[in-house]
Every structure is written in structure tokens, then in C-alpha cells.
Amino acid sequence: SAVISQKPSRDICQRGTSLTIQCQVDSQVTMMFWYRQQPGQSLTLIATANQGSEATYESGFVIDKFPISRPNLTFSTLTVSNLSPEDSSIYLCSVLAHAYEQYFGPGTRLTVT
Amino acid sequence: DQQVKQNSPSLSVQEGRISILNCDYTNSMFDYFLWYKKYPAEGPTFLISISSIKDKNEDGRFTVFLNKSAKHLSLHIVPSQPGDSAVYFCAALPLNRDDKIIFGKGTRLHILP
Q: Given an 8 Å threshold on Cβ–Cβ distance, is B44 in contact with A104?
């Protein structure tokens, strides 16, 4: 199994600012994923982050709004830029384990005022 | 268009009784299904999975049933315990493992004393 930590666990940010979320895994993993869970919604994949290459973004998500870094096999950051109230959500990082199971971090709850 | 549907946003079950959580899917290319459990302020954790070559998989108190013809799966928890109170996400993975896992919106299960 993989143990995943995220920082911060929650934050309240003003409109127009940015928040960078850190994700640390206790083992080396090739693929890391960033998800968003808005209230009452399913987990929505934002992007897949592979070490040494550009992140792959899902439809509706762009690099300018959600820049991602993946400097090594145990760490990644997701920045949510130019915040608006619609960005209020829980952001989760995840890694792929065996048999297609995914391990998730505890999430970062973002509130934009 | 939701490919994985959990039509019941919430469910209340008496402690000791059976909890049945349902999930429907629309994409016939899905061939692997997973259930995740999520407590507040924590990330989802993998619970149980089933491959499309099976119609049942059991792990302790948890059993997942798959009806491919109806594109329906269900998670049975017997007997239900207070610690089972959580949000349960159904997820599906297509034959092409390069495609992303698709999550339902989740069902909040309340176990009543």
C-alpha cells in the first residue's frame, strides 16, 4: 500500500489568488493523479502527472488554471490559479496501486471567498 | 453524461441489517469495477473490486454482485456496523487500461443504532 499526505488540509483563499497543494507519497510511483470533488459530485479527474513529462489534462481542465509539477517519483504539486468561488472544492491526489486500485490522499478542502 | 450512476444519494440502515448500495453503468466497455469508501476529511479508500468475468466477489462482510446484462452492480454489507457509515463510491474501468477510471457520485450510508 501507499501512504499519501497532502498539505494544506484546508485553506480559505480570496478570489483572484492562487493555492498550491502538495502531495507526498511514501514510495516511488510512476503515475499520480489529481482529482476534484465538488459538493454532491463524483470524483473528477483533473490531470495525470508523470515524472519527467508534462501532465496530461482532462477535458475542461487547462494548464494555465491548474499547473502541475512532478519533480520526482514521490512528490507533486497542483496549483489552482486565479481563484473564483466555483473552485471551492476538495482536491485529492492519488496514485495507482496494484490491480487497478488507487490510493488517495486525505484531500485539501479549498474555500474561495 | 454520467457513465457510472449511483441513483441513491443516501441510505439509512439499521445496525445489524443488510446494507445494499446500487450502481448502474452505461458503457459496455467497462470490465472492472471497484467500490471505495470515504469518511469525512479523509480520502477514499479501496474496499472491494470485481472483474467482469465474475458475478460475485466476497470479502468478509462485503460482497459485490455484478449483473452484466443489466449493467448493474451492488455492494452488500452484512451485518451493517456503525463504522460503515460513510460515502461509498462505485467506480468502473474500461478494457483499455489507458483510459481513466470513472467514479459515480457516491451514496452516503447512515447506520442507525
A: yes
